[in-house]
Amino acid sequence: MRTIEIKISEEQYQHIIAERSYGNRVNLEEETFGGYEICLHVSSPDVIPATLQMKMINNIDLGEVEWKIKRLSHE
User: Fold this and answer.
1) Backbone angles phi, psi at 66, to 5 degrees
2) CA dihedral 9, 14, 17, 21 (to 10 degrees)
């Protein structure tokens, strides 16, 4: 099995938490169910940096991130 690891900054993390909290409040107020998407956009590895986007109530561009696919160590 493999995992995808995405490294984010503290600022990006705080932005995700704030948007998730806001989205949950809105869903409760409107009595709806909802979730969110985390989208990793990779155009051309090693040429154009990957970016991360969160989609919930709003589309939030979180900026550039580092990512990699790793093999689990217990295999």
Assistant:
1) -100, 145
2) -160
Strands (E), 1-75: 2-7, 37-41, 50-55, 59-71
At residue 70, what is the residue type? K
Please give the Cα distance from 41 to 63 (Å, whole number). 10
Q: Residue 57 carries which side chain, given as an amino acid letter? A: I
Task: Look at residue 44 and give its three-state secondary structure.
Answer: strand
Q: Give the separation between CA 51 and CA 38, rounded to whole angstroms.
A: 11
Domain-wise residue ranges, the chain: 2-71
The pLDDT profile of the chain, 75 residues, written as one tens digit per residue, is: 899 999 999 999 999 999 999 988 888 888 888 888 999 999 876 788 999 999 988 899 999 999 999 988 765
